[in-house]
UniProtKB/TrEMBL annotation:
InterPro entries reported for this sequence: TPR-like_helical_dom_sf, TPR_domain_protein, TPR_rpt
Database matches in PANTHER family: TETRATRICOPEPTIDE REPEAT PROTEIN 1
TPR repeats mapped onto the chain: 173-206
Sequence intervals crossing the membrane: none
SUPFAM superfamilies (alphabetical): TPR-like
Protein name per the record: Tetratricopeptide repeat protein 1
Keyword vocabulary terms for this entry: TPR repeat
Region (Disordered): 27-50, 254-277
Claim: rRNA-binding is one of the keywords in the record: no
Pfam name, any one: TPR_8
Length: 277
């Protein structure tokens, strides 16, 4: 289950969604078992099958990350570095710089796929922390590769590359700006706003960051309100599921907000056409 650390609302929505899905699955299993006269073993198997996550294929794909064309095995690179002399490391650094220049040229020629491949080759040989030059070289390589990925709509992967670049150079304003835009493009508004705040700490006069400080809060509030309404709708469906066997529904209850505390109280209201309980 994913989380939204900035607001917590997405987590609540997903919890309700998961509970509702599980209950629906279990209800379906129970109904089928009632019709077929299934054994206890059959019921247990059906329940186990119902718990397989929808993103099961994504979980499998994640384990094959090393097969991706842009994968950089930094642990293997670190192990290799330990066997190299200072002169060899300098040569690797120079080779990486040459590949960076080639990637930049490919980017200018709009050969984005080729530039991604070239930057990846450079990252696979550029020393990790041999010197400040090589560290910042890797930061720039990740940043440039992110720009190339963005141009072919590989936004999630571009965000990952921006994060790697920032990890290596925490004052890289240009990459914070790039990641902030990518976050906004992918509807991660809270994360985007946090990056823009960080940019203003480093560059108070940054126009794009200042404009984002005005633009994003209303969008976040609107999204949160929409998510709250969707969550309440799912809670209502969940309540109706529990209340149905008793001949009740959520319409039998009213929710009132305390103007002082902001908390809610739930009161039962009898339908005049229904018999008393």
């Amino acid at each position: 289950m994913s989380q939204n650390d900035a607001t917590g609302i997405a987590r609540n929505e997903e919890v309700v969604d998961e509970i509702t899905s599980d209950l629906n699955a279990q209800c379906s299993i129970s109904q089928e078992n009632d019709k077929s006269g299934a054994t206890a073993e059959d019921i247990a198997k059906a329940e186990r099958d119902s718990q397989i996550p929808e993103d099961f294929e994504d979980c499998i794909t994640e384990t094959n990350k090393e097969d991706e064309d842009d994968y950089v095995n930094e642990q293997a690179l670190e192990d290799l570095q330990a066997t190299l002399s200072d002169d060899d490391k300098k040569l690797k650094h120079q080779e990486a710089l040459q590949l960076k220049a080639q990637g930049n040229e490919e980017f200018r020629d709009e050969k984005y796929v080729e530039s991604i491949s070239t930057y990846t080759k450079a990252l696979r040989i550029c020393p990790l922390k041999y010197s400040n030059d090589s560290m910042f070289c890797r930061s720039i390589l990740y940043a440039n590769r992110a720009a190339s990925k963005n141009m072919i709509n590989r936004k999630k992967s571009a965000i990952d590359d921006c994060s790697k670049a920032i990890e290596l150079n925490k004052h890289y304003v240009k990459v914070y700006l790039r990641r902030a835009k990518l976050y906004e493009d992918t509807e991660k508004l809270d994360e985007s706003l946090e990056d823009y705040k960080k940019i203003l700490e480093m560059d108070p006069a940054n126009k794009e960051a200042r404009e984002a400080q005005i633009r994003l809060p209303p969008k976040i509030a609107e999204r949160n309100e929409k998510m709250k309404n969707e969550m309440l709708g799912k809670l209502k469906d969940l309540g109706n599921m529990f209340l149905k066997p008793f001949g009740l529904s959520t319409q039998n209850f009213e929710m009132n907000q305390d103007p002082n505390s902001g908390g809610y109280s739930i009161n039962f209201k009898q339908n005049p056409n229904e018999p008393s309980l």
